[in-house]
Design brief:
With about 220 residues, the chain is α/β, with parallel strands linked by helices. It has 2 domains: about 1-120, Rossmann fold (3-Layer(aba) Sandwich), CATH 3.40.50; about 125-225, Winged helix-like DNA-binding domain superfamily/Winged helix DNA-binding domain (Arc Repressor Mutant, subunit A), CATH 1.10.10.10. About 40% of the residues lie in helices and about 25% in strands. The strands form 4 sheets. Strands 2-1-3-6-7 form a 5-stranded parallel beta sheet, sandwiched between helices. The radius of gyration is 18 Å and the shape is elongated.
């Protein structure tokens, strides 16, 4: 799961980032309006933590941009402004939740989990396709009720494929999602090939009723057998 923190307070931004990294999320950050606008324009995120008061602009303007692109439903506003008007406007623009500073990290994590369940899994903690069950909270894979070990990247890749079943996934989109926006610095995508090769082997050996197909020269697609 990929999360963007848009927050200008450096200490708070890093505290939230470290907390979410411990929860095995992929985390990116933006400290001002300009960098945040660039990120939301280029990349997709499963959840966005959005501060209202930002250098060079207002977080609600970013929310309006997200709404135009149909991406506002996964936003949690985090702001010291306990203003009813801001809360109402943010929710009207499609934000999923509103959390007033200061807050406990445990509460923030609970709110994030709720957003992810509603957005990606229709309120459930697991993705089930045929005989495959991926538990998002526990980060486990079972096939025919047998536990299958996955490393972190294999889990993130399978999660992304299952969330986009029957859709063509380009190598670039997959790399950006699983490795973050620093993927731009990579020379090639060979590391993606090897991760997927290992994942496909594990699925095949476990008689999974899903398959990750390679679409030559473009990317991959997960389908049911």
């Amino acid at each position: 799961m990929k999360i963007l923190i848009i927050e200008d307070e450096g200490d708070l931004r890093e505290t939230i980032k470290e907390s979410l990294l411990k929860e095995k999320y992929i985390v990116e950050t933006a400290a001002d309006f300009t960098s945040a606008f660039e990120k939301i324009s280029i990349y997709d995120y499963d959840c966005i933590l959005l501060d209202i008061m930002l250098p060079n602009g207002n977080g609600l303007d970013l929310l309006e941009e997200l709404k135009k692109n149909g991406k506002s439903e996964n936003v949690i506003i985090i702001s010291a402004k306990n203003s009813l008007d801001d809360k109402v406007k943010g929710l009207a623009l499609g934000a999923d939740d509103y959390l007033t500073k200061p807050f406990h990290l445990a509460e923030l994590n609970a709110r994030i989990n709720a957003v992810l369940r509603r957005k990606n899994f229709k309120g459930k903690d697991c993705i089930e396709v045929e005989n495959v069950v991926l538990d998002i909270q526990e980060r486990t894979l079972t096939i025919d009720n047998r536990n299958i070990h996955l490393n972190k990247k294999e889990f993130d890749i399978l999660n992304y494929f299952l969330s986009n079943k029957n859709r063509l996934i380009t190598k670039t989109a997959l790399a950006e999602y699983v490795w973050g926006d620093h993927i731009d610095q990579a020379d090639n995508f060979d590391f993606i090939y090897y991760q997927i090769k290992n994942l496909r082997k594990k699925l095949e050996e476990s008689n999974a009723q899903i398959i990750i197909e390679m679409i030559y020269g473009i990317g991959y697609k997960l389908t049911e057998k």
